[in-house]
Amino acid sequence: MDFADITQIRSEQEEREMLSSRLQPKGDSALFCSDCGGVIPVKRRELVPGVKTCILCQKERERSSMEYF
Can you give the three-state secondary structure of 17-29, one letter per residue? Predict the structure, then answer.
C-alpha cells in the first residue's frame, strides 16, 4: 500500500463520517409528522432522536429520492 492508497482510504472514511453525521437527525423529535400530520409513535421518537416524519412518509421520501439515481 502506497501513499495514494492511504490518502484514498482516509478520504473515503472522512466522507462516510461526514455523511453519517449530516444524515442523523438531531434535537427534539416531533410529536406529529411534518409531512402528513400523523402522530409519530413514541418508540420511533425514542429510537430516532430528532425525527420529524412518520415511518410511512420517511419511506416515501427515500423512495422519491432514489428515483433520481
Answer: HHHHHHHCCCCCC
CA 64 from chain centre, in angstroms, equals: 14
Residues 50, 60, 31, 20, Cα dihedral to 10°: -10
Q: In this structure, what C-alpha cell is assigned to residue 11? A: 478520504
Run of H or E residues at 66? helix 55-66
What does each of the 69 residues of the chain score in pLDDT, given as a tens digit? Answer: 787 778 888 888 887 776 665 566 678 999 999 999 999 999 999 998 899 999 999 999 988 887 655
Task: Compute φ and ψ for 32, nearest 5 degrees.
Answer: -125, 145
Question: What's the whole-model pTM score?
Answer: 0.59
